[in-house]
Design a protein that fits this description.
Elements: H1 2-9, E1 12-18, E2 21-23, E3 26-28, E4 32-38, H2 79-86, E5 146-148, H3 151-163, E6 167-174, E7 177-178, E8 187-194, E9 207-214, E10 227-234, H4 773-780
Parallel strand pairs: 5-6, 6-8, 8-9, 9-10
Antiparallel strand pairs: 1-4, 2-3, 2-7
Length: 784
C-alpha cells in the first residue's frame, strides 16, 4: 500500500509491453515488459526541422539535448529529484517478471537523463526562427544512437527507460514483431521503428518526440490521446489500417503516402500535418482538426469527416467521393482538382473557397456556408443546396438544372448565363443577385425574395413565381412567356421589352413599374395594381385587366384591343394614341384619365365613369357608352359616330367639333355642354337634354330629337335640316340664323325663343307653340 501511494504521489505509472515477440526465427511468449512513465511530459519547446531521422550520415552541428527536467517547464520539478525526495518507485515492477539488470527489491535506480545525440541523417535542430539552440541544452555524440533488433535488447532498453522516468530515447528498433505490444504512456524521444510488426500495438497517451516509423505494419494500433512533439513521421510504406488516433495531438505529423484505411481520428488534432498521398478510405475523422494540413492527392472515399476542421487545408487532387463532411469547416481550403462526387456537405462552411476547379462535385450541399465561393461553369445538375448560404458566390455559367435551392441565401450572387431550368428556388433570397441571360424555364420561384436583382434577357418561360418579391428588379427583355407571377411584388421593377405572353400576374403589384414595350398578349393581369406604372407601347391585346388598378398609369401607344378592362380603375391614366378597339371597359373608372387620340372603335364603356376624362380626338366609333358618365369630359374633335350612348351623361362636357353621327343617344344629357360645330347628324336624340348647352353652328340634320330638351340652349347658326323635333322644347333657346329647313316641329314649344334670321323653309310647325305673352310676363315678373 505504501509503495502504491508513493507511486501515485510521484505521478508515475507502469507501462507494459505485451508479447509474443518474434526475434529471429523464435517466438518468446508470456513476457510483460514494464517501465515507468510520467503522467505528463513537456514537449520540446523548439520545433526541429523536418527530414528523415535514421537514414544517411549525421550532419554537421549539434542536436539540442532533451528536456532533462520533464515537466519542469510547466513548474514541476524533475522526476529524478522527485523520486529522490519521496523515495518512491519501489514495487513498480512485476516481482516475477522484472527486467534484467533491475536492482534487487524492485527499487528503481535514479539516474540523470542521458545526453541527447543527433540521429544518423538528422539535421541538428535550431531554435525558433532558425536561431541557435538555447543555452543549457546538452549536445552529444551520434554514436550514442542504439540499434535494437532483439527482444532482449528491447527489454533492457525499457528497463533503462524505467529508471529514467519512463523515457525511451536515442533508439532504433529494427525488425521486431510486437503483436499487441503495450507502449502506452511512454515518452519516446529520438526513436525509430524500422520494419517492425506492431499489429494492435497500444501507444495511447504516449508522447512521441522525434519518432519515425519506417516500413512498419501497425494495423489496429492505438494512439488514442497520444501527443507528438517535434517530428513524428509515418513513411509511405507504413500500414496503419484501422488504427485509432482518437483525441491524439499529432500537429505537424507526417503521414505522407501512408496506408490509413479505416483509421479513426475522431476528436484528434492533426494541424499542419502532411497526409499527402495517403489512403484514408473509409476513415472516421469526425471532429478532427486538420487546419493547414496537406491532403494533396489523398484518397478518402466514403470517409466520415463530419464536424472536421479543414480551414486553409490543401485538398488539391484529393478523392473524397461518397464521404460525409457535414458541418465541416473549410474556409480557405484549396480544392483544385479534387473529387467530391456524392459528398454530403450539409451545414458545412466553405466561405471563400474556390470550387470551380473540382473534377467531381458533391450532390448534397444543403445548409452549407458557401459565402463568396466560385462555382463558375461547373456541372451541378440536381445538386442539393437547400438552405445553403451562397452570398456573393459566383455561379456564372454553372449548370444547375433541377437543383434544389429552396430557402438558400443567394444575395449578391452571380448566376449570369447559368442554367437553372427546373430548379427549385422556393423562398430563396436573391437580393441584388445577378441573373442576366440565365435560363430558368420551368423553375419554381414561389415566395422568392429578390429585390434589386438583375434578370436582363433571362429565360423565365413557365416559371412559377407566385408571391415573389421582385421589387426594383431589372427584367429588361426577359422572356416570361406563360410565367405565373400571381401576387408577385414588382414595385418599381423594370420589365421593359419583356415577353409576358399568356403569363399570369393576377393581383400582382406593379406600382410605378416600367412595363414599356412589353409583349403581354393574352396575359392575365386581373386585379393587378399598376398605379403610376409606365406601359407605353405595351402589347396587351386580349389581355385580362379586369378589376386592375391603373390610376395615373401611362399607356400611350399601347395596344389594348379586345382587352378586358371591366371594373378597372383607370383614374387619371393616360391613353394617348392607345388602341382600345373592342376593349371591354364596362364599369371601369376612367375619371380624369387621358384617352386623347385613342382608338376606341367597338369598345364597351357601359356604366363606366369618365368624369373629366380627356377624349379629345379619340376614335370611339361604334363604342358602347350606355349610362357612361362623361360629365366635364373633353371630347373636342372626338369621333363617337355610330356609338350607343343611351342615357349617357355629358353634363358640362367639351364637345367642340365632336362627331356623334348616327349614334344612339336617347335620353343622353348634354346639359351645359360646349358643342360648337358638333356633328349630330342622323343621331337618335329622343328625349335628350341640351339644357343650357352651347351649340352654335352644331349640325343636327336628319337627327331624331323628338321630345328633346333645348331650353335656354345656344343654337345660333345650328342646322336642323330634316330633323324631327316633335314635342321638343326650345323655350328660351337662341336659334338665331338657325336652319330648320324641312324640320318637323309638330307640337314643339318655341316659347321666348330668339329666332332672328332663322330659316323655316318647309318646316312643319303644326300645333307648335310660340311665345305666350301672359307666360312671358309672368316669367319676367320680379318682386320689388
Amino acid at each position: 500500500m505504501a509503495r502504491g501511494r508513493a507511486r501515485r504521489s510521484c505521478g508515475l505509472r507502469p507501462v507494459r509491453l505485451h508479447a509474443p515477440a518474434r526475434v529471429g526465427g523464435g517466438v518468446v511468449r508470456g513476457r510483460v515488459l514494464q517501465a515507468v512513465a510520467p503522467r505528463r511530459s513537456a514537449l520540446l519547446d523548439v520545433q526541429a526541422p523536418r527530414g528523415r531521422l535514421l537514414a544517411g550520415e549525421p550532419r554537421a552541428g549539434r542536436l539540442q539535448r532533451g528536456d532533462a527536467r520533464a515537466g519542469a517547464d510547466h513548474g514541476r520539478e524533475p522526476p529524478e529529484r522527485e523520486l529522490r525526495r519521496r523515495g518512491a518507485g519501489a514495487g513498480l515492477l512485476d516481482e516475477e517478471r522484472s527486467l534484467p539488470g533491475a536492482p534487487r527489491g524492485g527499487q528503481p535506480e535514479v539516474r540523470r537523463p542521458a545526453r541527447l545525440q543527433p540521429l544518423p541523417g538528422r539535421a541538428p535542430p535550431r531554435g525558433a526562427g532558425g536561431s541557435a539552440p538555447r543555452p543549457g541544452r546538452h549536445h552529444g555524440d551520434p554514436d550514442r544512437v542504439k540499434t535494437i533488433d532483439t527482444l532482449e535488447a528491447l527489454r533492457a532498453a525499457l528497463g533503462d527507460a524505467r529508471r529514467r522516468g519512463g523515457e525511451l530515447s536515442l533508439v532504433r528498433v529494427v525488425g521486431l514483431e510486437l503483436v499487441e505490444a503495450d507502449l502506452s504512456g511512454l515518452r519516446l524521444r529520438h526513436v525509430a521503428f524500422t520494419r517492425c510488426q506492431l499489429p494492435g500495438a497500444d501507444l495511447s497517451r504516449s508522447l512521441l518526440e522525434e519518432v519515425v516509423f519506417e516500413r512498419c505494419v501497425l494495423p489496429g494500433a492505438r494512439f488514442d490521446g497520444a501527443r507528438a512533439g517535434d517530428v513524428l513521421r509515418f513513411d509511405e510504406d507504413c500500414n496503419l489500417q484501422a488504427a485509432s488516433f482518437r483525441d491524439a495531438r499529432f500537429d505537424g505529423a507526417i503521414f505522407r503516402g501512408a496506408k490509413l484505411k479505416g483509421v479513426v481520428f475522431e476528436g484528434a488534432s492533426v494541424r499542419a500535418s502532411d497526409l499527402s498521398g495517403a489512403d484514408l478510405s473509409g476513415a472516421t475523422m469526425g471532429g478532427v482538426d486538420l487546419t493547414g494540413a496537406s491532403l494533396e492527392r489523398v484518397r478518402a472515399p466514403s470517409a466520415e469527416l463530419s464536424d472536421a476542421i479543414l480551414e486553409d487545408a490543401d485538398l488539391r487532387g484529393g478523392v473524397f467521393d461518397g464521404s460525409t463532411l457535414a458541418r465541416a469547416r473549410l474556409r480557405g481550403a484549396r480544392l483544385d482538382g479534387a473529387s467530391l462526387l456524392g459528398v454530403s456537405l450539409a451545414d458545412a462552411d466553405l466561405e471563400g473557397v474556390r470550387l470551380d476547379g473540382l473534377v467531381g462535385f458533391p450532390a448534397d450541399l444543403s445548409r452549407t456556408r458557401l459565402v463568396g465561393v466560385s462555382l463558375s461553369g461547373l456541372a451541378l445538375e440536381a445538386i442539393d443546396l437547400t438552405g445553403a448560404d451562397l452570398r456573393r458566390a459566383d455561379l456564372s455559367g454553372a449548370r444547375l438544372s433541377k437543383a434544389q435551392l429552396a430557402g438558400a441565401t443567394l444575395s449578391a450572387a452571380s448566376f449570369e448565363g447559368a442554367d437553372l431550368r427546373g430548379a427549385d428556388l422556393t423562398g430563396a433570397d436573391l437580393t441584388e443577385a445577378r441573373l442576366a441571360r440565365a435560363k430558368l424555364g420551368g423553375a419554381t420561384l414561389v415566395d422568392l425574395v429578390a429585390p434589386d436583382s438583375s434578370w436582363e434577357e433571362a429565360e423565365l418561360r413557365a416559371v412559377d413565381a407566385r408571391g415573389a418579391d421582385l421589387s426594383r428588379a431589372k427584367l429588361f427583355r426577359a422572356d416570361l412567356t406563360e410565367a405565373r407571377l400571381d401576387d408577385a411584388v414588382l414595385t418599381e421593377a423594370s420589365l421593359s421589352g419583356c415577353v409576358l405572353q399568356r403569363a399570369s400576374l393576377k393581383r400582382a403589384l406593379l406600382f410605378a413599374a416600367d412595363v414599356t414595350e412589353v409583349d403581354a398578349r393574352g396575359a392575365d393581369l386581373a386585379a393587378v395594381d399598376a398605379t403610376a406604372a409606365r406601359l407605353e407601347r405595351a402589347q396587351l391585346p386580349e389581355a385580362n385587366l379586369a378589376g386592375a388598378v391603373l390610376r395615373s398609369a401611362i399607356l400611350d401607344g399601347a395596344d389594348l384591343a379586345r382587352a378586358d378592362l371591366s371594373g378597372a380603375d383607370l383614374g387619371h391614366a393616360s391613353f394617348g394614341g392607345t388602341a382600345l378597339d373592342r376593349a371591354d371597359l364596362s364599369g371601369a373608372d376612367l375619371d380624369g384619365c387621358a384617352l386623347s387620340a385613342a382608338s376606341l372603335a367597338g369598345a364597351v364603356f357601359e356604366r363606366a365613369s369618365m368624369v373629366g376624362c380627356d377624349l379629345s380626338g379619340a376614335r370611339l366609333r361604334g363604342v358602347n357608352l350606355r349610362e357612361v358618365d362623361l360629365s366635364g369630359a373633353v371630347l373636342t374633335g372626338a369621333v363617337l359616330s355610330e356609338c350607343d350612348g343611351e342615357m349617357m351623361k355629358l353634363v358640362g362636357a367639351q364637345l367642340g367639333e365632336a362627331s356623334f353621327m348616327k349614334s344612339r343617344l336617347r335620353t343622353a344629357d348634354f346639359s351645359g355642354a360646349a358643342m360648337r360645330r358638333a356633328d349630330l347628324r342622323g343621331a337618335d336624340l329622343f328625349g335628350a337634354h341640351f339644357l343650357g348647352a352651347t351649340a352654335p353652328e352644331a349640325r343636327f340634320g336628319l337627327a331624331r330629337a323628338d321630345r328633346a330638351l333645348f331650353s335656354e340652349a345656344d343654337l345660333r347658326g345650328a342646322s336642323f335640316a330634316e330633323t324631327s323635333l316633335r314635342f321638343a322644347l326650345l323655350d328660351h333657346a337662341n336659334v338665331e340664323h338657325a336652319d330648320f329647313t324641312g324640320c318637323n316641329l309638330t307640337q314643339a314649344i318655341l316659347h321666348m325663343a330668339r329666332a332672328d334670321g332663322a330659316v323655316w323653309t318647309d318646316a312643319d310647325t303644326t300645333l307648335a307653340e310660340y311665345t305666350d305673352a301672359a307666360r312671358a310676363k309672368a316669367e319676367a315678373f320680379r318682386p320689388r
